[in-house]
Specification:
Elements lengths: L2 E5 L5 H8 L5 E7 L2 E3 L4 E3 L2 H9 L3 E4 L5 H10 L3 E5 L7 H4 L6 E5 L7 E2 L2 H7 L4 E8 L9 E8 L6 H21 L1 H6 L11 E2 L15 H10 L6 E3 L8 E3 L4
Parallel strand pairs: 1-2, 1-6, 2-5, 6-7, 8-11
Antiparallel strand pairs: 3-4, 7-9, 9-10, 12-13
Amino acid sequence: MNVVFFGTGEFAVPLLAGLAASPFPPRLVVTASDRQQGRGRHLAPSPVKAAARNLGLTVAEMTSRRDPALLSLLREMAPEMGVLADFSFLLPGILLGLFRKGIINLHPSLLPCHRGASPIQQAILDGDARTGNTVMLLSPRLDAGPILAQETRPLAGDETFAGLRDELAARGLPLVLGVLARLDPCLAAAREQDVSGLPLTRKLDKEQGRLDWTKPATRLEREVRAFLPWPGSCTFLLGEKRPIRCFIRQ
């Protein structure tokens, strides 16, 4: 199968590595452009770009939603199938239409619950009893395409974002491989989502890490777990200008 992989962040890395060693290795890996990081503001590759290089895979950077160079490259490739996880851009219809069988997305929530940019953190913040992974067929609307497969993981109430992200990433690989192995039957049995009235989770910002002591203790404890390692949780003591960081003893 002529497969193209789309991914940027840490959650997508285990899926990329697993696909590279499977019967469905990607011919091309599409990721976000290098970004400035750290105090020195040095350009650094995305986690997916670094992993793809180590795997010896061909990489293309996407600079905008309608990147003309990438669209031209994909037209030449005529890909059959796309696989996406933790990607920086919402793919437009013109790009989706270049894939004969579409693009499937591994999303770390039980859709339609927790669509959007921070589903794992939101499951922790809401005190959900369970979470899981969903494989869906991409549509132009964010996380609203038909569902192809799901798997559930109960939550004990002590999970951190980083730990839960890594576990769901590992569990997502066999789910995606199962869909690819039975692609036509899965597409035929796809289940439409009803997303009416459901909010989108938003991208986190640094300010959310500041603890508000007027909130209930249960909410603050969830915030510390959900925001580990970023944006982290902090507070200020006795008028100090520098924040005091809050940690969880592992």
